[in-house]
Design a protein that fits this description.
heterodimer; A: 137 residues; mainly alpha; 6 helices; 80% helix; B: 235 residues; two-stranded antiparallel sheet
Chain lengths: 137, 235
């Protein structure tokens, strides 16, 4: 019973946290989407090898539905997807063909992602955010 | 005669138990209720009201349908005296012995008086609780990091408790989120965090988990790392 009870409390705690901060979370996710969209534009206009693979990965991430109705698991899956996309971009980010502006855009996206992790207070998401940030540090 | 006295005693006790249950459900802290004079007064007052209700039922020969036996009258007087007497709406019909159809109606007038006592007990309780909070919770939370405490204390307290619910989880999350955004100092945030958690966990559980967190502080640096990364990626 304590486990069920804890699970109920946790669900409520997470749901409450998301509900209270839903507009803030929405603003961060929209910023991330815009920033990655700009990065995608830079990649498309560059001469990077195999860019279509990364562009489709970013597009797939952009199509992910995340918003006011999303729950904690949705945000966790979102963090995994973000982490994967950022890892893929990292592989090509050192190529000189990619405009230097992209580095700034990616760091801004990470900043917003770190804020999502801070707001949600979920250790799994914090770990993902920290992992991504450390790659780009 | 002896039976009548025992009836009054049972009625009195039942009324007191009912009042105690009412106070517990309202204030959720048994030990503090007994530290306030008006807490005792309220309980005893309810005992006397139950006796009064019992005498009304007995002497005015009120039609009670299923409660005609003596035990039934005691039970009714003990548990429902407050309901009947405090209510603004419910009236007690007293049949006229000569003409039952033209019975009198008693309009209870004790309601505002009882509400005054209840409000007073509540205010006294709040003041007493505020003193306990500041005196005990303040020093307990001192020296902790708010972000770390807000991350781990609610979960640890919830894990230790059996009766904490999903709704309470939502409530605590909202309170802590508001606290995080408020422009007050770290120590004030910690005090308020302690007050919020104390409502649900009680002081002893909070004390244990806060002390444990203090011990873990040296190694528990996940929020520090996250905050420093946010600063780093800000511009």
């Amino acid at each position: 019973m304590p486990t069920d009870n804890m699970s109920g409390f946790l669900d409520g705690y997470m749901a409450g946290n998301i509900a209270v901060n839903s507009y803030e979370l929405k603003a961060h996710t929209e910023k991330i989407r815009d920033l990655l969209d700009d990065v995608k534009g830079n990649i498309v206009s560059s001469t990077i090898d195999n860019k279509s693979e990364i562009v489709s990965a970013i597009k797939k991430f952009e199509d992910k539905e995340i918003g006011i109705e999303s729950n904690n698991e949705d945000y966790y899956n979102y963090s995994i997807d973000f982490s994967e996309v950022m890892s893929q971009i990292k592989k090509i980010s050192n190529q000189k063909a990619l405009p230097t502006e992209s580095d700034y855009l990616l760091k801004r996206a990470i900043y917003h992602f770190l804020n999502i992790a801070k707001t949600l207070q979920d250790q799994r998401i914090i770990n993902e955010a920290t992992k991504v940030a450390m790659q780009y540090k | 005669m002896e039976n009548f006295i025992w009836s009054l005693i049972f009625c009195f006790l039942l009324g007191m138990i009912y009042a105690l249950a009412e106070l517990l459900s309202r204030f959720k802290n048994g030990s503090l209720i007994f530290q306030i004079f008006w807490g005792y007064f309220y309980i005893f007052f309810n005992g006397f009201l139950s006796i009064l209700a019992f005498l009304i039922i007995k002497d005015f020969n009120i039609d009670l349908e299923n409660y005609q036996i003596e035990g039934g009258k005691i039970l009714l007087a003990g548990v429902s005296a407050m309901v009947v007497i405090r209510s603004w709406i419910i009236s007690v019909s007293v049949p006229n012995r000569n003409s039952p159809k033209k019975g009198k109606t008693l309009e209870p007038s004790l309601a505002p008086l009882i509400q005054v006592f209840l409000d007073y007990v509540q205010k006294e309780f709040d003041r007493k609780k505020a003193l306990v909070d500041v005196d005990k919770i303040g020093p307990l939370m001192e020296g902790l990091n708010f972000e770390k405490a807000a991350l781990s204390l609610p979960f640890t307290c919830a894990n230790l408790l059996i009766t904490i619910s999903e709704e309470e989880g939502k409530f605590i999350a909202k309170k802590i989120s508001d606290l995080r955004k408020s422009p007050i100092t770290n120590s004030s945030k910690l005090l308020n965090l302690g007050i919020i958690l104390n409502e649900f966990s009680g002081y002893k559980v909070l004390e244990k988990v806060a002390n444990r967190l203090r011990e873990e502080n040296a190694t528990h640096n996940i929020m520090d790392q996250l905050n420093s990364l946010i600063e780093e990626f800000k511009e």
